[in-house]
Design brief:
2 copies of one chain form a homodimer. The first copy, chain A, folds into 3 domains: 166 residues, Rossmann fold (3-Layer(aba) Sandwich); 162 residues, Dihydrodipicolinate Reductase, domain 2; 84 residues, Alpha-Beta Plaits. In chain A, 36% of the residues lie in helices and 25% in strands. Chain A has 14 helices and 18 strands. In chain A, strands 7, 8, 9, 10, 11, 12, 14, 15, 16 and 18 form a 10-stranded mixed β-sheet that branches. A 6-stranded parallel β-sheet of chain A has the order 3-2-1-4-5-6, sandwiched between helices. A two-stranded antiparallel ribbon of chain A has the order 13-17. In chain A, α5 runs parallel beside α10, α7 crosses α8 and α13 runs antiparallel to α14. The radius of gyration of chain A is 24 Å and the shape is elongated. The two termini of chain A are 46 Å apart. Chains A and B meet through α1, α2, α6, β12 and α12 of A and α1, α2, α6, β12 and α12 of B. β12 of chain A pairs antiparallel with β12 of chain B. Chains A, B: It catalyses: L-homoserine + NAD(+) = L-aspartate 4-semialdehyde + NADH + H(+).
Chain lengths: 435, 435
C-alpha cells in the first residue's frame, strides 16, 4: 500500500483526538483509505506526550509542517482565522491537500480558500466544521445529490442545546445552567460565541452554501441567542405541545433564501424536539427524499476527530490510486455557485409564540386579540393562568397562526404600549418543520 | 460539460421515480455531477408515458440496453435475482458502471458481483438497497471511515414499522393492521418477505458487511418476524418505559459477530423508539464518534430514486474528470474482507421481556421467580394486573436483567411446564442501545 503522509498543526482537543483515533484504529482506517496513513510531522506550540512517538517530527513553528515537502495532507486544527488562514493558504500553494475543523475559517474565508485550492488542484475538506462527528457535509454534498434542498433546520450548537434542555427539565434559570455548562466544559469562560448564536451562524452558512449552491455569506444570517428564554417559556411551550430549541434554519423559496439562528418552538412529534443535551441534529428537506434527519455528537475530541479522519480517508483513497479528489468543496463547481436574494426578516412568515405579562383585569384579553386581529393575525392557541396569590399580574400566552414578522412586531409594539401590559412581550418563532 | 449516458432497466416504481427525479431536477443534479446526465436508453417490458421522450431509445428486451455501446452507467431497477444478476454481470463485463436498488441481489450475490466489477474496473453501487433515501451506505462506508463500528441497529423495513406503530397507537390486532397496510400499498399481497423479516435480513447483511468488513452472508442472520406481537405487548412495553420495534441488529464483540432481525423492546428515551409509520432509521455506534442516527423515508418512488441518483452522481463526477470511482463496494478492498466467527444465538446475552398467561392463584409468582433465579436470571421489573372480571387468568409481565438466550429458554420451558401456566410464554428481546 502507498503511504500518505499527514502533517497535523495544533494539538488541542481535536488535534489530540485525531492523533489518538489514528493510533487506536490505524489498521481499520488504513483499510478504508486503501493506503497507509502516517503522521510524520506535528506542529504544536507546547510539548505533549503525543509528540513522543518514534518517527514523528515535532516543530514548535507550525509553518515548518506546511513547509515540510514530504507532507501530502495538512490538517489544520489550530482554530482562529488569522494564523489558520495563512497556514491553509501556504499549504494549498505548496500543493498540499488540506483538512480542517475550522468553521469560522470556512464560513468567513471559504470562498477565497476554495478558489485557491481549486487553482492549485488540491482538496480543502471541512466535515468536522459542522455538527462534529455527524457526517452531515457528506450527506448534503453527496448523499442528497439527487435533491433540490427546500430547507434545513438544525441543532448545531451543543452548548445552547445543553442549556435549553437543562432549563426545561430542571426548571432552572439560564444563568444558573450556563454556570454549570461552564463547569462541565460545555461552555467557554466567555460564552458569547455560543449563547448568542454566532457559532451556529458559522455552521449554518456552510450548510446553506452546500444546500442551495450559494456563496458563503456570514453577513446574510439573522442571529438571535438564547439568553432571553426563561424556564416559564419552556413550560408553556411544552403545555402547547412544543419544545424550544435553538435552531439554525435555512430556507429557499421563490422569494429567495432566508438564513436565521434563533430559539424556535417545534412540535413535540418532531424527533428534533427530543434531541437533548450536547447532541447535535440536522433535519434536511429534499425535493425527492423528503425530510431526513442526522443526529449525533456535535463536539468532543473523538467525535470531531472522526470527521477529520473521514476527510483524510476520502482524499487518501484517491491519492492511493494516483487520482485527485474531484468533489468540489461546496458540491458544485465554483462557477455554478449563484447568489440568490435574501428574504428580509421583516417579510419572513412563521407562527409566533407570545408571552405577555399583563394586569389581571377584565378586558385585557379582548384588547390584545383585537390588536392582533386588526393586523390579520389569528390566534391558534391560548393559555391564561390564574394569578399567583397576592399578585396583580398574569401571564397570557398566545400561539398565533403564520404571520409576517413586520405585522407581528407592529402588533407587539401596540400591545406593549397598552397600560395593562406590564413588561416587554416575549416573542419566539414557531416552525412546524413539515416536509 | 461531458455527457454521461444512462441506461435504465425497469420502469416500475423506482425506475419511474428515477426518470422523474432526473427530469425534475436535472439542472441541479448536473451541477452536482459536473457532467450532463442523459438517459439515452430505457428497457421496459411494457409501454409507459415516460418512454415517450425525444432522444430516449426504448427497448422491450432489457438486454438491448446492456448491449448499447453508448451507455456509461447501467441502472438496474427490475428487481429479483435471476435476470437482474445476468443483466448486471453482462453490464460489468461490457465495462459499464452499474447502479442498483436491489437488496436481494447484493445480499445474496454481492461478493461475486463486486469481484467481477473490480476485475473489470467498474463501480457497482447500491445506496438505494438499504433504507431508501437515507444515505446510510455512504455514511457507513465513508462518513464513519475513522471508526471501528461496535454495533448498529435499524428500523430497516417500513412495512413492519408501520404495522407495529399502528398496532401500538390504535390498539389494533396484527391481522387487522396488515390488511390496512396492504390496502395502502405499504405491504405486498404476500407479506411474508416483510413481516417475517427476510427483507430486513437482506439489508442487515449489507450494512454489517460494510460495518465490520466481513463477507455478505445471508445465512448468518437470525430472523424473527412480527406476527406474534399483540397490542397487549405494545401496551405493557410502554408501561415499562419501552417501545417495541422490529430491528435489524449487528454487533461485533470479542466473541464474534451477531446478526439478528427480531422484535425488540427499546427504551423510550432512544430516538429510534419514536420513529413511526413507514419511516426507516439506523443507529450506528462507532468507536470514535459514538452513536449517530440517520432517519428518513425508507421506500417510495422519489426517496429511493434520490439514492439511485446519488450513486449516479458519484460515478459521473469521476468519469467527468476522466477518473474512475475508487471507493470499494464495501468500503475496503476485497482482499481485506475477513470472515469473523458468528456468535451462536444460544450465547447471545440480552435482557428479556416475558409475558405469561397464568392462573390467578397464590404462589404462582413465587414459582416463576424461583425458576428464573435458579438459572441466575434476575428480575428488573414486573407488572401484574388484577384479573379481568370473571376471568381466572392473569397476565404477568417480567423484564429480566441480561441473560444468555440458552438460560432464558430453559427457564421459559420450565415455566411453560407449570400447571399454572395457561399458554406459551411470549418472549421478546430487549436492547438498551447504549453507546
Amino acid at each position: 500500500m502507498k503511504t500518505i503522509k499527514l502533517g497535523i498543526c495544533g494539538l488541542g482537543t481535536v488535534g489530540s483526538g485525531t492523533v489518538n483515533v489514528l493510533a487506536a484504529s490505524g489498521e481499520a482506517i488504513n483499510r478504508r483509505a486503501g493506503a497507509t496513513l502516517e503522521i510524520t510531522h506535528i506542529g504544536a506550540r507546547r510539548d505533549n506526550a503525543l509528540c513522543n512517538t518514534a518517527g514523528i517530527k515535532v516543530s514548535r513553528d507550525i509553518f515548518d509542517v506546511v513547509d515540510d515537502p514530504e507532507i501530502d495532507i495538512l490538517i489544520e486544527l489550530i482554530g482562529g482565522t488569522t494564523v489558520a488562514k495563512e497556514l491553509v493558504e501556504r499549504a494549498i500553494k505548496a500543493g498540499k491537500h488540506v483538512v480542517t475543523a475550522n468553521k469560522a475559517l470556512i464560513a468567513e474565508f471559504g470562498t477565497e480558500l476554495f478558489a485557491l485550492a481549486s487553482e492549485h488542484g488540491v482538496a480543502l475538506r471541512y466535515e468536522a466544521a459542522v455538527a462534529g462527528g455527524i457526517p452531515i457535509i457528506k450527506a448534503l454534498r453527496e448523499g442528497l445529490a439527487g435533491n433540490e434542498i427546500n430547507w434545513l433546520a438544525g441543532i448545531i450548537n451543543g452548548t445552547t442545546n445543553f442549556i435549553l434542555s437543562e432549563m426545561g427539565t430542571a426548571k432552572r434559570a439560564f444563568e444558573d445552567v450556563l454556570a454549570e455548562a461552564q463547569a462541565l466544559g460545555y461552555a467557554e469562560a466567555d460564552p458569547t460565541f455560543d449563547v448568542e448564536g454566532i457559532d451556529a451562524a458559522h455552521k449554518l452558512v456552510i450548510l446553506a452554501a452546500i444546500a442551495f449552491g450559494i456563496p458563503l455569506n456570514i453577513n446574510g444570517v439573522y442571529t438571535e441567542g438564547v439568553t432571553r428564554i426563561t424556564p416559564a417559556d419552556l413550560s408553556f411551550a411544552e403545555e402547547l405541545g412544543y419544545r424550544i430549541k435553538h435552531l439554525g434554519i435555512a430556507k429557499l423559496t421563490d422569494a429567495g433564501v432566508n438564513l436565521r439562528v434563533h430559539p424556535t418552538l417545534i412540535p413535540e412529534e418532531q424527533l428534533l424536539s427530543r434531541v437533548n443535551g450536547v447532541e447535535n441534529a440536522v433535519l434536511i428537506d429534499g425535493s425527492a427524499v423528503g425530510p431526513t434527519l442526522y443526529c449525533g455528537a456535535g463536539a468532543g475530541a473523538a467525535p470531531t476527530a472522526s470527521a477529520v479522519v473521514a476527510d483524510i480517508v476520502d482524499i487518501a483513497r484517491e491519492l492511493a490510486a494516483d487520482q485527485l479528489p474531484q468533489i468540489p468543496a461546496l458540491g458544485v463547481d465554483a462557477d455554478s455557485i449563484t447568489e440568490i436574494d435574501s428574504v428580509p426578516m421583516a417579510q419572513v412568515v412563521t407562527p409566533w409564540y407570545l408571552r405577555l405579562n399583563v394586569q389581571d383585569k377584565p378586558g385585557v384579553m379582548s384588547k390584545v386579540s383585537s390588536i392582533l386581529s386588526e393586523r390579520g393575525i389569528s390566534i391558534e392557541a391560548l393559555i391564561q393562568k390564574p394569578p399567583t396569590k397576592g399578585q396583580q399580574s398574569v401571564s397570557l400566552v398566545v400561539l398565533t397562526n403564520p404571520a409576517e414578522q413586520a405585522q407581528l412586531l407592529g402588533a407587539v409594539a401596540e400591545i406593549e404600549a397598552l397600560e395593562t401590559t406590564l413588561s416587554d412581550v416575549m416573542r419566539i418563532r414557531v416552525e412546524t418543520l413539515k416536509g
